[in-house]
Amino acid sequence: MVAAAVEATHVIGVDLGGTKILAGLVDREGRITRETQLPTPTSSTAELIAALEQTVEGLLEPSVCAVGFGIPGTIDQTRGRVEVTVNLPLVEFDFRDWMRGRFDLPVGIDNDANAATVAEWAFGAGAGTRHMVMLTLGTGIGGGLILDGRLYRGAVGAAGELGHIVVQHDGHPCQGFCMGRGHLEALASGTAADKAARELFGERADAHDLVRQAQAGNEDAVVALGEIGHVLGSAIGSLVNIFNPEVVVIGGGFAAAGDLLLDHARERVRREALEPARDLVRIVPAELGPEAGLVGAGLVAFEAFDA
Ligand SMILES: [Zn+2]
Protein backbone atom coordinates (compact mmCIF):
# COMPACT_ATOMS: atom_id res chain seq x y z
CA MET A 1 0.00 0.00 0.00
CA VAL A 2 1.19 3.47 -0.87
CA ALA A 3 -1.13 5.79 1.05
CA ALA A 4 0.53 9.06 0.09
CA ALA A 5 2.96 9.59 -2.74
CA VAL A 6 6.21 11.19 -1.61
CA GLU A 7 6.93 13.12 -4.78
CA ALA A 8 3.99 12.34 -7.07
CA THR A 9 6.17 12.60 -10.16
CA HIS A 10 5.16 9.32 -11.76
CA VAL A 11 2.16 7.18 -12.48
CA ILE A 12 1.78 3.60 -13.57
CA GLY A 13 0.25 3.18 -17.01
CA VAL A 14 -1.13 -0.19 -18.04
CA ASP A 15 -2.06 -0.94 -21.63
CA LEU A 16 -4.20 -4.07 -21.55
CA GLY A 17 -4.11 -5.75 -24.94
CA GLY A 18 -5.71 -8.88 -26.30
CA THR A 19 -2.39 -10.71 -26.33
CA LYS A 20 -0.11 -8.74 -24.00
CA ILE A 21 -0.12 -6.43 -21.01
CA LEU A 22 2.33 -3.54 -21.47
CA ALA A 23 2.91 -1.45 -18.35
CA GLY A 24 5.37 1.13 -17.13
CA LEU A 25 6.24 4.15 -15.03
CA VAL A 26 5.30 7.32 -16.89
CA ASP A 27 6.08 10.95 -16.01
CA ARG A 28 4.16 14.09 -16.97
CA GLU A 29 6.26 14.55 -20.09
CA GLY A 30 5.17 11.12 -21.32
CA ARG A 31 8.57 9.56 -20.71
CA ILE A 32 8.55 5.86 -19.81
CA THR A 33 11.16 5.19 -17.14
CA ARG A 34 10.46 1.52 -16.41
CA GLU A 35 8.59 -0.93 -18.56
CA THR A 36 7.30 -4.44 -18.22
CA GLN A 37 5.42 -6.80 -20.48
CA LEU A 38 3.66 -10.12 -20.04
CA PRO A 39 1.16 -12.26 -21.95
CA THR A 40 -2.51 -11.48 -21.21
CA PRO A 41 -4.21 -14.35 -19.37
CA THR A 42 -7.50 -15.00 -21.12
CA SER A 43 -8.87 -18.09 -19.36
CA SER A 44 -10.68 -16.34 -16.46
CA THR A 45 -11.47 -12.93 -15.00
CA ALA A 46 -9.72 -13.82 -11.74
CA GLU A 47 -6.52 -14.76 -13.53
CA LEU A 48 -6.60 -11.62 -15.67
CA ILE A 49 -7.19 -9.32 -12.69
CA ALA A 50 -4.46 -11.06 -10.70
CA ALA A 51 -1.99 -10.52 -13.54
CA LEU A 52 -2.90 -6.81 -13.72
CA GLU A 53 -2.49 -6.45 -9.94
CA GLN A 54 0.88 -8.16 -9.99
CA THR A 55 2.01 -5.96 -12.86
CA VAL A 56 1.12 -2.81 -10.91
CA GLU A 57 2.68 -4.13 -7.70
CA GLY A 58 5.92 -4.79 -9.53
CA LEU A 59 6.13 -1.14 -10.59
CA LEU A 60 4.99 0.56 -7.36
CA GLU A 61 7.47 2.96 -5.81
CA PRO A 62 7.18 6.08 -3.63
CA SER A 63 7.04 8.49 -6.58
CA VAL A 64 3.87 6.84 -7.95
CA CYS A 65 0.73 8.91 -7.38
CA ALA A 66 -1.91 7.14 -9.51
CA VAL A 67 -2.61 4.20 -11.80
CA GLY A 68 -4.23 4.31 -15.24
CA PHE A 69 -5.52 1.52 -17.44
CA GLY A 70 -6.26 1.43 -21.17
CA ILE A 71 -8.79 -1.31 -21.81
CA PRO A 72 -9.93 -2.71 -25.17
CA GLY A 73 -13.64 -2.37 -24.62
CA THR A 74 -16.48 -0.06 -23.71
CA ILE A 75 -16.31 1.83 -20.44
CA ASP A 76 -18.99 3.44 -18.29
CA GLN A 77 -17.04 6.31 -16.71
CA THR A 78 -19.90 7.24 -14.38
CA ARG A 79 -19.49 3.92 -12.59
CA GLY A 80 -15.88 3.12 -13.46
CA ARG A 81 -17.13 -0.05 -15.01
CA VAL A 82 -15.84 -2.10 -17.91
CA GLU A 83 -19.00 -3.05 -19.78
CA VAL A 84 -17.68 -5.34 -22.47
CA THR A 85 -14.31 -6.24 -23.99
CA VAL A 86 -13.32 -8.02 -27.18
CA ASN A 87 -11.75 -11.44 -26.61
CA LEU A 88 -11.08 -10.88 -22.90
CA PRO A 89 -12.88 -12.32 -19.84
CA LEU A 90 -13.75 -8.84 -18.57
CA VAL A 91 -17.46 -8.03 -18.71
CA GLU A 92 -19.59 -5.78 -16.45
CA PHE A 93 -16.70 -5.46 -14.03
CA ASP A 94 -16.44 -2.56 -11.55
CA PHE A 95 -12.83 -2.09 -12.47
CA ARG A 96 -12.05 1.35 -11.03
CA ASP A 97 -13.39 0.64 -7.53
CA TRP A 98 -11.68 -2.72 -7.50
CA MET A 99 -8.26 -1.27 -8.32
CA ARG A 100 -8.72 1.73 -5.99
CA GLY A 101 -9.46 -0.65 -3.16
CA ARG A 102 -6.49 -2.76 -4.08
CA PHE A 103 -3.85 0.00 -4.25
CA ASP A 104 -5.31 2.91 -2.27
CA LEU A 105 -4.36 5.28 -5.09
CA PRO A 106 -6.39 7.31 -7.61
CA VAL A 107 -7.25 5.07 -10.56
CA GLY A 108 -8.27 6.14 -14.06
CA ILE A 109 -9.60 3.85 -16.74
CA ASP A 110 -10.37 4.45 -20.37
CA ASN A 111 -10.86 2.73 -23.67
CA ASP A 112 -7.49 1.81 -25.20
CA ALA A 113 -8.05 3.90 -28.33
CA ASN A 114 -8.96 6.91 -26.17
CA ALA A 115 -5.69 6.39 -24.30
CA ALA A 116 -3.71 6.26 -27.55
CA THR A 117 -5.55 9.38 -28.70
CA VAL A 118 -4.60 11.49 -25.68
CA ALA A 119 -0.98 10.32 -26.02
CA GLU A 120 -0.77 11.24 -29.72
CA TRP A 121 -2.43 14.54 -28.93
CA ALA A 122 -0.08 15.39 -26.08
CA PHE A 123 3.21 14.13 -27.49
CA GLY A 124 2.72 12.80 -31.01
CA ALA A 125 1.13 13.61 -34.35
CA GLY A 126 -1.63 15.75 -32.83
CA ALA A 127 0.59 17.90 -30.62
CA GLY A 128 -0.33 21.58 -30.72
CA THR A 129 -3.86 21.05 -32.05
CA ARG A 130 -7.22 21.54 -30.30
CA HIS A 131 -9.35 19.43 -32.65
CA MET A 132 -8.14 15.96 -33.55
CA VAL A 133 -9.67 12.70 -34.68
CA MET A 134 -7.77 9.44 -34.27
CA LEU A 135 -8.37 6.04 -35.80
CA THR A 136 -6.38 2.96 -34.75
CA LEU A 137 -6.33 0.27 -37.40
CA GLY A 138 -5.69 -3.16 -35.90
CA THR A 139 -7.74 -6.31 -35.53
CA GLY A 140 -10.61 -3.87 -35.14
CA ILE A 141 -10.76 -0.11 -35.54
CA GLY A 142 -10.64 2.09 -32.46
CA GLY A 143 -11.26 5.79 -32.37
CA GLY A 144 -10.81 8.87 -30.26
CA LEU A 145 -11.90 12.50 -30.41
CA ILE A 146 -10.14 15.57 -29.08
CA LEU A 147 -12.74 18.34 -29.32
CA ASP A 148 -11.95 21.89 -28.32
CA GLY A 149 -8.86 20.90 -26.40
CA ARG A 150 -10.07 17.87 -24.48
CA LEU A 151 -10.91 14.22 -24.94
CA TYR A 152 -14.59 13.82 -25.75
CA ARG A 153 -16.09 10.90 -23.83
CA GLY A 154 -19.83 11.35 -24.38
CA ALA A 155 -22.58 10.87 -21.80
CA VAL A 156 -21.08 7.92 -19.94
CA GLY A 157 -17.68 7.45 -21.60
CA ALA A 158 -18.64 5.32 -24.56
CA ALA A 159 -18.06 7.94 -27.28
CA GLY A 160 -15.48 7.73 -30.03
CA GLU A 161 -16.31 4.25 -31.31
CA LEU A 162 -15.38 5.42 -34.79
CA GLY A 163 -14.81 1.89 -36.08
CA HIS A 164 -18.53 1.30 -35.83
CA ILE A 165 -19.79 4.03 -38.10
CA VAL A 166 -21.75 2.73 -41.06
CA VAL A 167 -19.99 3.12 -44.41
CA GLN A 168 -22.12 0.59 -46.28
CA HIS A 169 -25.87 0.45 -45.66
CA ASP A 170 -26.92 -3.13 -44.75
CA GLY A 171 -23.39 -4.28 -45.56
CA HIS A 172 -21.22 -7.08 -44.17
CA PRO A 173 -21.74 -8.07 -40.51
CA CYS A 174 -19.33 -6.39 -38.11
CA GLN A 175 -16.92 -8.22 -35.78
CA GLY A 176 -16.79 -9.31 -32.17
CA PHE A 177 -19.75 -8.31 -30.02
CA CYS A 178 -20.98 -5.75 -32.56
CA MET A 179 -24.17 -6.82 -34.28
CA GLY A 180 -24.13 -3.97 -36.81
CA ARG A 181 -23.59 -4.15 -40.55
CA GLY A 182 -21.41 -2.33 -43.02
CA HIS A 183 -19.29 -0.79 -40.26
CA LEU A 184 -15.89 0.70 -41.02
CA GLU A 185 -14.23 -1.96 -38.84
CA ALA A 186 -15.49 -4.78 -41.06
CA LEU A 187 -14.15 -3.09 -44.19
CA ALA A 188 -10.95 -1.23 -43.34
CA SER A 189 -9.32 -2.93 -40.33
CA GLY A 190 -6.25 -5.13 -40.35
CA THR A 191 -8.72 -8.02 -40.34
CA ALA A 192 -10.24 -6.73 -43.58
CA ALA A 193 -6.72 -6.52 -45.02
CA ASP A 194 -6.06 -10.10 -43.88
CA LYS A 195 -9.13 -11.16 -45.83
CA ALA A 196 -8.02 -9.30 -48.95
CA ALA A 197 -4.56 -10.88 -48.63
CA ARG A 198 -6.03 -14.39 -48.42
CA GLU A 199 -8.13 -13.79 -51.52
CA LEU A 200 -5.06 -12.69 -53.48
CA PHE A 201 -2.24 -14.79 -52.08
CA GLY A 202 -3.79 -17.85 -50.42
CA GLU A 203 -4.96 -18.97 -47.00
CA ARG A 204 -1.67 -18.32 -45.21
CA ALA A 205 -1.36 -14.71 -46.30
CA ASP A 206 -2.21 -11.78 -44.01
CA ALA A 207 -2.20 -7.98 -43.94
CA HIS A 208 1.60 -7.88 -43.58
CA ASP A 209 1.95 -9.83 -46.83
CA LEU A 210 -0.51 -7.53 -48.55
CA VAL A 211 1.49 -4.46 -47.51
CA ARG A 212 4.82 -6.09 -48.43
CA GLN A 213 3.50 -7.11 -51.85
CA ALA A 214 2.13 -3.63 -52.48
CA GLN A 215 5.44 -2.06 -51.45
CA ALA A 216 7.19 -4.40 -53.89
CA GLY A 217 4.93 -3.16 -56.66
CA ASN A 218 2.41 -5.98 -56.96
CA GLU A 219 -0.47 -4.33 -58.80
CA ASP A 220 -3.24 -6.49 -57.27
CA ALA A 221 -2.00 -5.70 -53.78
CA VAL A 222 -1.78 -1.99 -54.59
CA VAL A 223 -5.37 -2.03 -55.84
CA ALA A 224 -6.64 -3.99 -52.81
CA LEU A 225 -4.97 -1.58 -50.38
CA GLY A 226 -6.31 1.30 -52.41
CA GLU A 227 -9.87 0.00 -52.09
CA ILE A 228 -9.47 -0.26 -48.32
CA GLY A 229 -8.03 3.26 -48.36
CA HIS A 230 -11.08 4.51 -50.23
CA VAL A 231 -13.43 3.07 -47.60
CA LEU A 232 -11.29 4.61 -44.88
CA GLY A 233 -11.39 7.93 -46.72
CA SER A 234 -15.18 7.84 -47.00
CA ALA A 235 -15.41 7.46 -43.24
CA ILE A 236 -12.80 10.16 -42.61
CA GLY A 237 -14.67 12.47 -45.00
CA SER A 238 -17.78 12.12 -42.85
CA LEU A 239 -15.77 12.68 -39.67
CA VAL A 240 -14.24 15.82 -41.20
CA ASN A 241 -17.73 17.08 -42.06
CA ILE A 242 -18.95 16.45 -38.52
CA PHE A 243 -15.98 17.59 -36.45
CA ASN A 244 -13.85 19.92 -38.62
CA PRO A 245 -10.61 18.58 -37.09
CA GLU A 246 -7.21 20.09 -37.75
CA VAL A 247 -5.71 16.64 -38.02
CA VAL A 248 -6.80 13.03 -38.42
CA VAL A 249 -4.19 10.69 -36.96
CA ILE A 250 -4.03 7.10 -38.20
CA GLY A 251 -2.39 4.59 -35.84
CA GLY A 252 -2.43 0.86 -35.12
CA GLY A 253 -0.48 -1.95 -36.73
CA PHE A 254 -2.18 -1.76 -40.12
CA ALA A 255 -1.22 1.93 -40.40
CA ALA A 256 2.18 0.54 -41.41
CA ALA A 257 0.68 0.46 -44.91
CA GLY A 258 1.47 4.19 -44.91
CA ASP A 259 0.73 6.25 -48.00
CA LEU A 260 -0.27 3.15 -49.97
CA LEU A 261 -3.37 3.37 -47.79
CA LEU A 262 -3.49 7.02 -46.78
CA ASP A 263 -3.09 8.56 -50.23
CA HIS A 264 -6.27 6.77 -51.31
CA ALA A 265 -7.99 7.88 -48.13
CA ARG A 266 -6.91 11.49 -48.75
CA GLU A 267 -8.21 11.32 -52.32
CA ARG A 268 -11.62 10.19 -51.09
CA VAL A 269 -11.69 12.80 -48.32
CA ARG A 270 -11.21 15.50 -50.97
CA ARG A 271 -14.35 14.21 -52.64
CA GLU A 272 -16.55 13.66 -49.59
CA ALA A 273 -15.62 16.47 -47.23
CA LEU A 274 -16.86 20.02 -47.63
CA GLU A 275 -14.66 23.05 -47.81
CA PRO A 276 -13.24 24.78 -45.85
CA ALA A 277 -12.87 21.79 -43.45
CA ARG A 278 -11.63 19.65 -46.36
CA ASP A 279 -8.81 22.02 -47.22
CA LEU A 280 -7.68 22.50 -43.63
CA VAL A 281 -7.45 18.91 -42.42
CA ARG A 282 -4.21 16.92 -42.44
CA ILE A 283 -4.37 13.12 -42.51
CA VAL A 284 -1.17 11.81 -40.97
CA PRO A 285 0.29 8.64 -39.48
CA ALA A 286 0.64 8.31 -35.70
CA GLU A 287 4.09 9.00 -34.28
CA LEU A 288 4.34 7.21 -30.94
CA GLY A 289 4.23 3.63 -32.18
CA PRO A 290 3.16 0.69 -30.01
CA GLU A 291 3.82 2.60 -26.76
CA ALA A 292 1.07 5.17 -27.42
CA GLY A 293 -1.40 3.10 -25.38
CA LEU A 294 0.97 2.86 -22.41
CA VAL A 295 1.77 6.59 -22.42
CA GLY A 296 -1.94 7.35 -22.79
CA ALA A 297 -2.81 5.11 -19.84
CA GLY A 298 -0.27 7.17 -17.88
CA LEU A 299 -2.03 10.38 -18.90
CA VAL A 300 -5.35 8.86 -17.80
CA ALA A 301 -3.70 8.18 -14.43
CA PHE A 302 -2.49 11.80 -14.10
CA GLU A 303 -6.01 12.96 -14.97
CA ALA A 304 -7.37 10.83 -12.10
CA PHE A 305 -4.69 12.21 -9.75
CA ASP A 306 -5.35 15.85 -10.72
CA ALA A 307 -9.10 15.35 -10.23
ZN1 LIG B 1 -19.45 -2.61 -35.58
Note the main attributes of this structure.
single chain; 307 residues; alpha/beta; 5-stranded mixed beta sheet; 39% helix; binds zinc ion
Shape: globular
Gyration radius over CA: 19 Å
Approximate strand percentage: 15-25%
Distance, first to last CA? 21 Å
Outline the fold blueprint.
Blueprint lengths: L9 E7 L3 E8 L4 E8 L5 H15 L4 E8 L1 E4 L4 E5 L9 H9 L3 E5 H12 L8 E6 L3 E7 L2 E2 L32 H5 L1 H12 L5 H9 L3 H25 L3 E5 L7 H14 L4 H4 L1 E4 L6 H15 L1
Parallel strand pairs: 1-4, 4-7, 8-11, 11-12
Antiparallel strand pairs: 1-2, 2-3, 5-6, 8-9, 9-10
The structure holds zinc ion.
Would you mind describing this structure in some detail?
This protein is α/β, with parallel strands linked by helices and 307 residues long. It has helices at 45-59, 95-103, 112-123, 184-188, 190-201, 207-215, 219-243, 259-272, 277-280, 292-306, and strands at 10-16, 20-27, 32-39, 64-71, 73-76, 81-85, 107-111, 132-137, 141-147, 150-151, 247-251, 282-285. The strands form 3 sheets. Strands 3-2-1-4-7 form a 5-stranded mixed sheet. A 5-stranded mixed sheet has the order 10-9-8-11-12, sandwiched between helices. A two-stranded antiparallel ribbon has the order 5-6. The longest helix has 25 residues, at 219-243. The chain is globular and about 60 Å long. Bound molecules: zinc ion (ZN). Residues 164, 174, 178, 180, 183, 185 line the site of zinc ion (ZN).
